[in-house]
Automatic annotation (TrEMBL):
Gene3D superfamilies recorded: Homeodomain-like (1.10.10.60)
Higher taxonomy: Bacteria, Pseudomonadati, Pseudomonadota, Alphaproteobacteria, Hyphomicrobiales
Pfam families per record: HTH_Tnp_1 (PF01527)
Organism: Rhizobium tropici
GO biological-process terms attached to the record: DNA transposition
Protein name as catalogued: Transposase
Matches recorded under InterPro entries: Homeodomain-like_sf, Transposase_8
One function term, GO molecular function aspect: transposase activity
Amino acid sequence: MMSKSNFSEEFKRDAVRQITERGYPVAEVSQRLGVSQHSLYEWKKKFAA
């Protein structure tokens, strides 16, 4: 069963933009935002079409 996310859609989109548009490594964004790398990859699949 999946749990409800504590992060807003805008937070997720901004995190993905840091990776896709600003070129930050996933590991750096993960550490800076306190989000798992797995979550960032999932968000990237969802939002970066």
